[in-house]
Amino acid sequence: VPNLSDPTRRTAAKAAVAVAVAAPFIQKVKAANDVVQYGFIGSGSRGQYLLGHMKGLDNGRCVAIADLVDENSAKGAEKIGTKPKTYRDYRELLADKNVDAVCIATPLFTHFPITRDSLDAGKHVFCEKSLVFKPEEVHALRAIASSKPKQVLQVGLQRRYSKFYDAAYQMVKKGLIGDVQHVYAQWHRGPLGAWRMKPKAAGQSQEMWELANWRLFRKFSGGLTAELASHQIDVADRMFESHPEFVTGVGGLDSMKDGRDVYDNIQLIFKYPKGQKLIYSSNSTNALCPLFGGERTQFGEMIMGTNGSIHITVGTDSEPAMALWYIDPSGPKKSGEKKEGAAASASLASTGKGSKGLPILLSKDEMTGNESFLEKELKFARRWLYSKGVMVPEEDRNPVDVAMESFLDDCKKGERPTADLEIGLSDSTSVILANLAMDEGRRVYYKEIDGMGGGPAGAAKPAAKKV
Ligand SMILES: NC(=O)c1ccc[n+]([C@@H]2O[C@H](COP(=O)([O-])OP(=O)(O)OC[C@H]3O[C@@H](n4cnc5c(N)ncnc54)[C@H](O)[C@@H]3O)[C@@H](O)[C@H]2O)c1
Questions:
Q1: Does the Cβ of 42 fall within 6 Å of ligand 1?
Q2: 39 lines ligand 1 (CB under 6 A)
Q3: Of the residues 183, 189, 260, 378, which has the fewest C-beta atoms closer than 10 A?
Q4: pLDDT value at position 282?
């Protein structure tokens, strides 16, 4: 463990070694029988994004696309470029014997029926988050998936495939930031970036218009909690190595009054079993992100320990992922350790000088001792530039690519994916219960899911404790 009162280049170097994760991936050309033939269901905005990314993978081939909207199937087919067959009805795609696996990127309310039908048709399944929509679907999907142990089921929580998040998890596990009691996460969007109601197109039926705006209607969507918070709840679950014990919160529909009925702002507190908390906020009125020294907008997570904090976020296609480590000057004194100067007085003062964020390094910048003179100099130079904020360390691959490639590999090998059924169901349960907590204005306990929707506790009464 590095000397926490000395956040210098040396400290950063030592910490980087301590948290370094797997070596960079090397792409190989696959033999034809190593290629998984997959179908894609729902090639709207996310579907087209995923198909664009899957184009670069050599362990799968898209042979079919199903979408209710022909124009979307055509756009998806163009993105992947493998001339897939196109269908309107996903059940026809499932009947196609050439399809070994399916990727589902349809609206939330359709995830369960399409996943169920796909498993029943013998396919491996990748389904976008949030995995399921209703309590009864949590129980039903667990039962169906466990009766088909040879079929892979992966959920679209791509932070689980990020090297930065792996490094943060290792740092927490190894105690580098002390005792972690809180995670703060936000996804804030100003009025310009907030979800908008799409106007009705000429000739579009009411039904298809509602479907195009599915995110904004409760009958189809879990709103901000399902669409945005789900990713970040999963980060807290991973760092705390548990699902929450209960959740409470306040939701409002206060600024985006365009006919939607989902909340446009939510504030949630999830309490975890050891007293740890996830403090969550999502709004549609302001996009500032106070993390990363204000360098990014909208979203990120802060993992807070007694010795320091990690600010972390995934990248987009235009911005790299970021992970910074802020050493806490008021961290507890270890036996034999003498604090001096700012570090000593900061622990007594009501406010103290903040530390500068140190970049968290990945294995490519790790000193192995086997470098040539030049490689060593380059690594030192890069690390020095990172520490000065001139350069940011970057993941060598987008976690979305890693997630999709890993799904196809797991289909081939019959292995359990990293973001598996239980991770997806736990995340969906938290989403469902958080929405209930806001609607009913009470604490909702995680175990209440067992009494809902035909779960193992039958019709058990939910606890009615008010906050
Ligand atoms: N992992 C992530 O970071 C991430 C990011 C964005 C979206 N998503 C998820 O992806 C999913 C899709 O979101 P989107 O933004 O692409 O929505 P979208 O509305 O842009 O696309 C949905 C597509 O599904 C089609 N569709 C609807 N019902 C269908 C059915 N029964 N059969 C076949 N096709 C059907 C629609 O015609 C549309 O083309 C959601 O679950 C969302 O949460 C995940």
A1: yes
A2: no
A3: 378
A4: 98
